[in-house]
Amino acid sequence: MIKNPIPWPNDAKCAACVTFDMDADSLIHIAHPNDGHRRLSGISMLQYGPKVAIARIVETYRKLGIRQTFYIPAWCIENYPEAIEIILEGGHEIAHHGYLHEHPNELPPEEEAYWLDRGIAVIEKATGQRPRGWRAPLYNISDVSPALLVDRGFQYDASLMGDDIPYILKTDNGSLVELPTHWGLDDWPQYVQSADLDYMMPIRAPRTGFDAFRQEYQVIKKYGGLWVPVVHPFATGRLARWEVFAEFLEQEVTAGETWFAPMEEIAAYVRSVKKSGEVHLRTESVPAYTGPIDVVKG
Predict the structure, then answer these.
(1) Which of 98, 122, 175, 113 is nearest to 144 (CA)?
(2) DSSP characters for 2-49?
(3) Is 77 helix (H, G, I), strand (E, B) or coil?
(4) Separation CA 21–CA 42 (nearest Å)
(5) Is the pTM value of this prediction over 0.85?
(6) Given the DSSP bridges, would you call strands 14-16 and 226-227 parallel, antiparallel or unpaired?
(7) pLDDT of 240-289, one tens digit each?
(8) Are 104 and 136 in contact (CB under 8 A)?
């Protein structure tokens, strides 16, 4: 069912990365710039991520001997240094996720570029190297985002939903590897309910909510695709939910049939097999449109 499956390393059946977006309370401040500081309950819910869940998640990864990727707004890197230290000590990738979780497609290009560059500087200072990957906050990548990323030396994007396997984004001045996911692999519809964030979903029990991730994984593994959950420490990192997730990871890491790797390593591998000619990857020229479509009345 996947026409051009990628031959994953060591004959793995699929590739996987559990990507955590550690947004913390940037979400409150970007959504409510005038009174976010007064929303104590919402702030406490989101701070659970860096203050409690991150250590739990990284410890699970240590026990399993895997490294994964964390997408973190630069403001959160500046404000939660202990969580960042824990992530870096575990050898995990820290990738770009905006400055204060701003939405690029709502910004003029010059403002998007400013926040992108400001975030790069913060990540470089914290990690000692420039970020290789980026995920637009709320997946809201803009028409100019890919070109901005290429100009700044990024190797991959993780904001789009256009395939079951990696593909190539082609801009006028270079290309990016796209490592896609989709809303069915996001934990917000399963676990998040917050009036402060204007998001009210019926919360699933931990195992019920995880079934969506498990079923997606089973089919991805069957056909050789890429499994990229987009989860959040304040949500999936909660005690009962993470216990379910950790049990699954232990089972699959022990089975040894899936390549668990940071997104930067997956992107580098994809580039290598493309360059060698082992696989033909679909290429998308971006942006898809240069302006609003013109529909003429008949």
Answers:
(1) 113
(2) -SS----GGG-SEEE--EEE--TTHHHHHH-TTTGGG-HHHHHHHHHI
(3) helix
(4) 17
(5) yes
(6) parallel
(7) 999 999 999 999 999 999 999 999 999 999 999 999 999 999 999 999 99
(8) yes
